[in-house]
């Protein structure tokens, strides 16, 4: 590939790579994209202000990249939404650092396979662990309320749909499941391809933080199911129960640990702002409703709550403390709050899990 591929006679495809301190894996992802033989690719990289050599690698391949930026974000879905905002292709795919397309003609084969009424298209993966490569078929869409039913690395979506719906930033891990479930409920047309599209490297967030991933899955299912008791029969709930049994009640201990830290902070004696209104944020709010003055969430427009506001309010808000309830992204959010809103570090409370 010499420069950006822009054959306007072919459907433009946008590929977005989201990165943060990804120097070990980013280059192989970039190469798999710029070596595609499809003639009309827009390539976007959104970096979350990496502190390693990630930006150096991006600059090395800058001539192949349509657009890139390196700045703080509040999580992977915030970064992915930034990619959606600048995307101009008809179709969009997210191929994040470490993952890659299986063949040089993968995008070409995907576009050639599109049916006229397709809105989202996905396929199979090769799962790579310790240099072993295993073929994994996509799960059937027949049971969407069970768990995530497609591999996000293989998913190509009409960009117009993504600009309308976007990813919910209340989730740390399962935002892609929330997105495809919304599309399913809105009756968008899914198409399955019976071949491998992406190489998926093991060890991602959904695996390393599997308990939080399953909790988010269940929370998502609770938003869309007509009968909440169906959740007890879902694959996500079964998996969460299995973690609980095999890890000495790890889920229970996680919640107990959070409550103990809340007690150590004397939250019942403080007035504070809650940052994040996902599943953990709701649990905290239900316990400390009278102590919470405001809730800050980037996804505030999609949630109805009389105390919920966007991050812009922080510029004019006076408060004693702000508690971050987004588990696993505490450092990034803390840095964002300090840099963007000049909030003293002493006012920022976080959990240790």
TrEMBL record:
Residues 14-152 form the Glycosyltransferase 2-like domain. InterPro entries: Glyco_trans_2-like (IPR001173), Nucleotide-diphossugar_trans (IPR029044). Coiled coil: none annotated. One of its GO terms (molecular function) is hexosyltransferase activity. This is Glycosyltransferase, family 2. It comes from Arcobacter venerupis. The lineage of its organism: Bacteria, Pseudomonadati, Campylobacterota, Epsilonproteobacteria, Campylobacterales.
């Amino acid at each position: 590939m010499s420069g950006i591929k822009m054959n306007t006679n072919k459907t433009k495809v946008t590929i977005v790579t989201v990165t943060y301190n990804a120097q070990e894996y980013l280059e192989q992802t970039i190469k798999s994209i710029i070596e595609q033989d499809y003639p009309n690719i827009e390539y976007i990289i959104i970096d979350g202000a990496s502190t390693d050599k990630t930006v150096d690698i991006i600059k090395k391949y800058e001539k192949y990249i349509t657009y890139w930026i390196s700045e703080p974000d509040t999580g992977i879905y915030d970064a992915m939404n930034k990619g959606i905002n600048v995307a101009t292709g008809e179709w969009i795919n997210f191929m994040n650092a470490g993952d890659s397309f299986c063949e040089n003609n993968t995008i070409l084969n995907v576009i050639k396979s599109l049916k006229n009424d397709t809105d989202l298209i996905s396929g199979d993966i090769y799962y790579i662990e310790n240099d072993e490569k295993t073929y994994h078929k996509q799960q059937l869409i027949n049971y969407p309320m069970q768990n995530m039913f497609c591999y996000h690395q293989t998913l190509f979506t009409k960009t117009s749909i993504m600009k309308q719906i976007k990813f919910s930033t209340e989730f740390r891990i399962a935002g892609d499941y929330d997105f495809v479930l919304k599309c399913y409920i809105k009756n968008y047309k899914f198409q399955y391809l019976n071949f491998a599209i992406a190489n998926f490297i093991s060890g991602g967030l959904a695996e390393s933080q599997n308990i939080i991933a399953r909790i988010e899955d269940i929370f998502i299912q609770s938003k869309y199911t007509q009968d909440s008791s169906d959740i007890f029969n879902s694959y996500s709930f079964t998996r969460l129960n299995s973690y609980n049994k095999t890890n000495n009640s790890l889920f229970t201990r996680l919640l107990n640990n959070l409550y103990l830290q809340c007690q150590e902070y004397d939250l019942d004696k403080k007035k504070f702002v809650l940052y994040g209104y996902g599943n953990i944020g709701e649990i905290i709010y239900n316990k400390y409703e009278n102590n919470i003055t405001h809730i800050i969430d980037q996804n505030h427009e999609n949630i109805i709550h009389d105390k919920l506001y966007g991050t812009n309010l922080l510029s004019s808000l006076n408060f004693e403390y702000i508690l971050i309830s987004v588990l696993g992204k505490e450092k990034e959010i803390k840095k964002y709050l300090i840099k963007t809103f000049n909030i003293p570090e002493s006012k920022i409370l976080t959990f240790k899990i």
